[in-house]
From TrEMBL:
GO molecular function: metal ion binding; phosphotransferase activity, for other substituted phosphate groups
Membrane topology recorded in Swiss-Prot or TrEMBL: Multi-pass membrane protein
Transmembrane segments: 14-40, 61-84, 90-106, 118-137, 157-175, 182-202, 214-232, 244-262, 274-298, 329-350, 356-376
Cofactor: Mg(2+)
Signal peptide: none
CDD domains: GT_WecA_like (cd06853)
Listed GO biological process terms: cell wall macromolecule biosynthetic process; cell wall organization; lipopolysaccharide biosynthetic process
InterPro entries found in the cross-reference section: Glycosyl_transferase_4 (IPR000715), PNAcMuramoyl-5peptid_Trfase_CS (IPR018480)
GO cellular component: plasma membrane
UniProt keywords, alphabetically: Cell membrane, Magnesium, Membrane, Metal-binding, Transferase, Transmembrane, Transmembrane helix
Protein name: Undecaprenyl/decaprenyl-phosphate alpha-N-acetylglucosaminyl 1-phosphate transferase
Coiled-coil segments on the chain, per record: none
Length: 400
């Protein structure tokens, strides 16, 4: 009997999808910038902003078109075209992405209220569900068997899918505070999902269902990288809600799609952590801004001001205040995202307890190093002050 050949990942086709997304997004971003200026989708100068000139937004339109162009191009490829024949999930992502991107464009131009944006997010998540993107099962630890898979009924799967989509769309929107921050963090997060889902595809050998998550992830990574040259400091265009909400929806769809194809006998308890790497990254990056926002509400309330009034004490203002430049602050965020994503996805490749312990220890060490790098400008400033002659010295000498 002839041995069964191992499944070969269509690396060239994924590379072509990635490259197409990069080129299409990069080219279209310049055109979208001109369109944004013409229709008046421009970010005004506010006291709390870090930019000093009006910047066009609505760049998410180029991100969506780059993603859609790369995914549709895959329909013509020999291996990846099987993903379209297996189910309608990818088509659902394109339709839901168009819906959420349209809502974002309206917000970029007319500043929709929070209720209208939430309704649009729920509508787009509902479109995903209608096209078959739905969370199906969860792995839960068990003291007797070591763990078991719990299958969700339709109502539970719909609620969980919509909830995850709304969380990620708002999380991605919330961290879009510095030039290039969202595009870079989203690219790192999508790359983590691509690595995990291709590992899953290789082990399963199923080039139909299991090939959909890495296809979505490859297109999203390319779209974010293609947009980044226009958006990195100094930004010529902002992604806007159209891009932030679409990226969150695409990440949610790829995560849910990968969950439905999990081989629990292969990944075991590590599958849940590795699969949720994008969500872990997003929530970890969002945690500090959310905490900072809550502290701002408390601070403003104590001062007798409106809790949602603007000020210059948010996270990115604090990062700049301790001595980071905009580029440095964004690169620090990239480092945090890469450590968290790499640590989570590495669990899918480790098979021994010793390897997992080593990976966790390495991740902790890297996180400590990243924390030190985050506050290094303030530490350096204090060291300079301690070395100065004292309080009686001229301010110019202390500053030097």
């Amino acid at each position: 009997m002839a041995p069964v050949a191992a499944y070969v990942i269509p690396a060239r086709e994924y590379a072509l999808v990635f490259g197409t997304a990069v080129v299409v997004t990069f080219v279209l971003t310049g055109l979208v910038r001109l369109l944004a200026v013409r229709v008046g989708a421009v970010t005004p100068i506010r006291d709390r902003d870090v930019h000093s000139l009006p910047i066009p937004r609505m760049g998410g339109v180029a991100v969506y078109l780059g993603f859609a162009g790369a995914v549709l191009m895959a329909l013509q490829l020999p291996a990846l075209s099987a993903a379209f024949r297996a189910s309608s999930e990818i088509v659902g992502v394109l339709v839901a992405g168009a819906v959420i991107c349209l809502v974002g464009v309206l917000d970029d131009r007319f500043d929709l209220d929070a209720v209208a944006k939430l309704a649009g997010q729920i509508l787009a998540a509902g479109v995903l569900v209608l096209f078959g993107v739905q969370w199906q099962s969860l792995w839960l630890p068990d003291s007797d068997t070591g763990g078991q898979v719990v299958f969700l009924d339709q109502t539970q799967g719909v609620v969980l899918t919509i909830l995850l989509t709304v969380i990620l769309t708002n999380a991605m929107n919330f961290i879009d505070g510095l030039d290039g921050l969202l595009a870079g963090v989203a690219a790192i997060s999508a790359l983590a999902l691509f690595v995990f889902s291709t590992r899953q595809l290789f082990l399963s050998g199923n080039d139909t269902y299991a090939s959909q998550p890495p296809l979505m992830a490859a297109a999203l990574v390319g779209a974010c990288i293609g947009f980044l040259p226009h958006n990195f400091w100094p930004a010529r265009i902002f992604m806007g809600d159209s891009g932030a909400m679409f990226i969150g929806l695409a990440m949610a769809a790829a995560t849910v799609s990968a969950n439905g194809r999990l081989d629990t006998s292969t990944f075991g308890p590590r599958s849940t952590i590795a699969l949720l790497a994008p969500l872990v990254v997003a929530l970890a990056v969002v945690f500090i801004p959310v905490l900072d926002f809550l502290m701002a509400v408390i601070r403003r309330t104590k001062e007798g001001r409106h809790p949602f009034s603007a000020d210059k004490q948010h996270l990115h203002h604090r990062m700049l205040a301790i001595g980071h430049t905009q580029r440095q602050a964004v690169l620090v965020f990239y480092l945090w995202a890469a450590i968290l994503a790499g640590g989570a996805v590495s669990l899918a490749f480790l098979t021994t307890d010793r390897g997992i312990v080593i990976a966790v220890v390495a991740m902790v060490v890297l996180l400590i190093a990243a924390a030190g790098l985050s506050v290094w400008p303030r530490i350096r400033a204090r060291r300079v002050q301690r070395r100065s002659p004292g309080a009686d010295s001229p301010p110019e000498r202390i500053a030097a």
